[in-house]
Amino acid sequence: MTDAAPSTGPVTRSSVARVGVATAVTAMCGYAVLYLAARDLEPAGFSVFGVFWGAFGLASGAAFGLLQEATREVRDARADHPPDGPHTRPMRVAAVVAVVAAMLIIATSPLWVGHVFVAAQWLSVLLLSAGLAGFCLHATLLGMLAGTNLWTQYGALMVTDAVIRVLVAVATFVVGWGLGGFLWATVGGAIAWLLLLACSPATRAAARLRTPGSTATFLRGAAHSIAAAGASAVLVMGFPVLLQATSDDLGATGGVVILAVTLTRAPLLVPLTAMQGNLIAHFVDQRTARLRALIAPAAVVLGIGVVGVVAAGLLGPWLLRAGFGEQYRADGALLAWLTAAAVAIALLTLTGAATVAAAMHRTYAIGWVGATVAAVLLLLLPLDLETRTVVALLCGPVVGIAVHLAGLAGTNDRAHILRVRRRRTT
After folding, report:
1. C-alpha 198: how far from chain center
2. Residue 391: CB partners within 8 Å, gap ≥ 6?
3. Inter-residue contact 20 to 271 (CB < 8 Å)
4. Please, is 270 exposed, middle or buried when counting C-beta atoms within 10 Å of its C-beta (0-12, 13-18, 19+)?
5. TM segments (predicted)?
6. In angstroms, rounded to a whole number, what is the distance separating the alpha carbons of residues 141 and 199?
7. C-alpha dihedral, 298 to 302 to 308 to 310, nearest 10°
8. CA 132 vs CA 91, 95, 138, 171, 185: distances in Å
9. Cβ–Cβ contacts within 10 Å for residue 96, how many?
10. pLDDT, tens only, 261-285
11. Where are the beta strands (DSSP E) in 75-173?
């Protein structure tokens, strides 16, 4: 089946801890890039940067579908598959997807570039296409590492990506490169997978793994995951693009709202995004009780969320001004509501990981697409920018959560029926 049989042991506390440390470093690096950009650029300029940051987040978020499918395929693989049967090399597939994705961005850019990027348009297009190509391979390699329990290498890849971004941002801040430098910083980490392959024999071995089934089968599953991950990325990372597309001019107010949205969701969504491999592996291992397996991580999310809502309401306005300057002002109620919206998206991310683990690609996609469509429609309400942002981010995810839970409940019912039948026949 594979060049080397993948390790499929349980997801241990040490593996979660290792990824947790890497996630903390990644989050701090992300905050550092945002801090440097906000200090170096006025709110209107930060709005332009924020839209590109969101556009790359949207594109790379869609590429996380490759991580999900690679993790599930490798994790589900068993040594009893005949080595001469159909098989797929996910990294080779990812390379083809990377080239096609980059070409599509460049070819279609004349249709949308003027509506999304209001400055440095063609530099943004070229960086976006190159960054996405690199991230397709980055995400697939993360999936291979998660599927084989190589959590140290998984964390190292995350940290390398984040550190490269910070180094470019620091250089930009020091030499006064301006907006262009922060655009480069956004995509700079997309070469991290090459560095890890060069330095780590274990990573090279994981990258060479084959998975059972044809390339077409892998692509069908990946297509569903990419579609759903793309929809999720609109709400998780690409939301500034959505705001720009549904607004005449974001201006300084838009810069403040984008920064507030990014800061309030990062403490929850950065760790959850980084731990997709852990979560999917955990839910695959708990294939007979996935709804029950959701309880513990959901309780953690809710507990952190309650603390976050209170802290954002009481301390958020002061922290925003103290950290980023007097020009970045938002009231406590807005920050508290945006934090509550981040909790809703975090719960949707959890239920989505459980449906991916169950190979329910259609349910996963419908849930995220439904949440995104609901959010877009709510953004079109005749309300001020702050209010419609909160309403869209808080209410949209509820649609997706309902779809995912309904699908998971159906699989639980079927699994229970099968267990009862087996008992009766034994």
Report:
1. 25
2. 378, 381, 383
3. yes
4. buried
5. 16-38, 44-67, 93-113, 119-142, 181-200, 221-243, 255-274, 294-315, 335-358, 365-383, 389-411
6. 14
7. 180
8. 15, 11, 9, 23, 14
9. 12
10. 888 887 888 778 777 777 877 787 7
11. 87-88
Which DSSP letter does residue 6 get?
Answer: P
- β-sheet bridge partners, residue 88: 211
Distance CA 198, CA 37 (A): 31
59 Cα distance to chain centroid? 10
Going 272 to 275 to 276 to 282, the CA torsion angle's sign is: negative
Spatial CB neighbours of 203, under 8 Å, sequence gap ≥ 6: 141, 145, 150, 153, 157, 196, 197
Both structure tokens of 351: 């239920």
| pLDDT tens readout for residues 22-55 | 878 888 898 899 889 988 988 878 888 988 998 8
Q: Spell out the alpha helix ranges (H) of 325-384.
A: 332-357, 361-379
Tokens of 212: 């059972």
Task: Write down the residue that tokens 């999310």 correspond to.
Answer: 301
CB contact set of 302 (below 8 Å; sequence gap of 6+): 343, 347
Distances (CA, A) of 44 to 30, 160, 422: 20, 30, 64
| Residue 163: Cβ-neighbour burial (10 angstroms; 0-12, 13-18, 19+) | middle
Q: Which two tokens stand for residue 26?
A: 């990644």
